[in-house]
Design goal:
about 40% helix; about 300 residues; Rossmann fold; 10-stranded mixed sheet
Length: about 300
Amino acid sequence: MSASSPVVVGVDGSESASTAVVWAARTAAARKLPLLLVSVVHVPAYYYTEPYLVRGYGDDLKKAGRAHLDSAEVLAREVADEVGGLEIETKLHEGRIAEILLQYAPTAAMIVLGSRGLGEFSGALLGSVARAVAAHSTAPVAVVRGRTLDGRPPTEGPVVVGVDGSEVSEAAIATAFEVASALGAQLVAVNVWSDVSVQPSLGATADDPHWRSIQAAEEAVLSERLAGWIEQYPDVEVQRIVDRDRPVRVLSEFSERAQLLVVGSHGRGGFKGMLLGSTSAALMGTADCPVLIVRPKSAG
């Protein structure tokens, strides 16, 4: 495989993982990155009490894992034939799913997972695994979920990025611009500020001057955060949205017409050292398109 950071995708033979492979192959091809398909088999500890059991069961799991990789490679090559060349490699591991995938994080462009799998004992990528990888990975983590057409994730619509002025948000913006440029997609930058604390006595309606001042300040924050990236990516059409509402609700609504939703691993309202914020965690389970969760390198 080339020296470029690969797009790493977890493979377990499930329908969800197959959808993730399609999305990962298309994304890797668009960004001119290699694709690494990874399957992990796990032999439960109690099998080791009987050596003949662990040998037989382990061999069966490895055969199944290899079959899953072969099927995923065929699927990835079909996508490559449609969108252009793609360098593909496969790896079979034995161990804990999340632990193995996290080993790739330091050198991966991103890690891609299906939203659900077949079950822990068959080497699946469960929601709990996706959450663990998203919480601890230093590389961006894409959870491929939501609407599909003939088993394929959406290829139309904008890339939507959540912006809140935090360091984590800045990392999400950088990734969103890069992906939008590669995909030739519009970028919708959304700043939702319902987490701003205002005393009720200062007014609670949108027309109140105190709310309007906060709205203006948040619009300025959004423009400031986007300015440098707009200059760097002049090919990307940008739409700005500033709203006072719950971030999960607004971003979930945008996901219904987006091809990708990009968010930071946690935002300005999270506790220091938080591994996965409430907004990103919720969107992993509610978004109607793939969700890309980004963590700044300094937080790794």
